Amino acid sequence: MIYLLTKEGCALIYHEFYKILERTYPKLDVLQELHAMQAWLYINPDTHKSFGHIGHFVNSWLKRNGKQGQTRR
Questions:
Q1: What 3-state class would DSSP assign to 18?
Q2: Residue 30: what pLDDT?
Q3: Other beta carbons within 10 Å of 47
Q4: What pLDDT is attached to residue 66?
Q5: Going by C-beta distance under 8 Å and a sequence separation of 6 or more, which residues neighbour residue 68?
Q6: Which residues pair with 13 in a beta bridge?
Q7: Cα R_g (the chain), whole angstroms
Q8: What is the pLDDT of residues 7-31, one digit of tens each?
Q9: What ranges in the chain are assigned the alpha helix state H?
């Protein structure tokens, strides 16, 4: 299970959402990217997203890294 810090506390990334992300970004190691998001949010507490926007944050992160070609499987 992966939890991402939010303004309200934390948000669980559900297995169903994780599988959607893997299908959407097949060239990325989604699990590693989620761990990178965890670390980034941990050291940047002023940038925590609201619970309602964490999905947008995750998608934007993966979309950006997919274009840059980072963390390929």
A1: helix
A2: 98
A3: 11
A4: 86
A5: none
A6: 2
A7: 12
A8: 999 999 999 999 999 999 999 999 9
A9: 15-24, 30-43, 54-68
Whether 69 has a pLDDT exceeding 70, the answer reads: no
Assigned token pair, 68: 């840059």
45-49: average pLDDT: 93
Helix (H) or strand (E) holding 3: strand 2-6
H or E element in which residue 48 lies: none
Q: Are 61 and 37 in contact (CB under 8 A)?
A: yes
Contact status, residue 37 vs residue 4, Cβ threshold 8 Å: yes
Residues recorded for the chain: 73
- Answer whether 72's CB lies under 8 Å from 27's CB: yes
